Amino acid sequence: TTRMTPVILVLFLLSMTPIFSVSLTKFLIHGDIMPSLMRNADPCTARGCKWRKKGRYVYVPFTIASDFIFQQMLLFTSFHRSTCIRFVWRRKQVDYLHFFSGTGCWSYIGRQGKQQKISLQKNGCVYTSTVQHEVLHALGFHHEQVRSDRDSYVKIHFGNIRPGLESNFRKVQTNNLGTPYDFNSVMQYPNYAFSKNGLPTITARCNPNLPLGCAKQISRNDIARVNRLYKCSK
Ligand SMILES: [Zn+2]
Q1: For a surface tag, which of 4, 6, 123, 192 has the fewest beta carbons within 10 Å of its beta carbon?
Q2: How confident is the model at residue 5 (pLDDT cuts 50, 70, 90)?
Q3: 80 known member of a binding site
Q4: Per residue in 65-76, pLDDT tens?
């Protein structure tokens, strides 16, 4: 049995020290995604890692470690308002999310089966955008800058990426659900993510100075993707 080793988070990327990133990121795939032997990317949504739908709603059972107060998890309401995802307290459901305060903010992609952890480090991850980001991973979504069509929208500056961390920028054959590349997605990494030299690793093709990774909350496209992937009806 492997002891899962935790990770980084989008928010920390901006202030990460080299020591911190080196010791943690070598265990990571795509920065804050927990590697899994079973599945590792959002093409899994075509193979059964979606959460199950019952009637109109997709119920995602969850538990919360005592690290958090429930109020903090009311951040879920953004999904309840705009999608057919319903986070429900776990009773006897086999598959569920367990939120706890680990090292950094990280999540698996898609439903893994049984207890599935999401780490939200207490001092650093409990922000609307970060919780939504990690929850979107668990719902089956990948980072914006690894989308299959990303090369038309962003330029990845591989020469500026810290050696060994290039895999965070590897393209994934994502299902983009007919939604456009979205610079304002909560799944978009910042310009300087994993930079080794203070120069940008990601820039928008239409405007190299466009600040990326600034989303304060889930975007309209992020919402549209959830609704399309899970076939939510209004
Ligand atoms: Zn992420």
Answers
A1: 123
A2: very low
A3: no
A4: 988 776 666 677
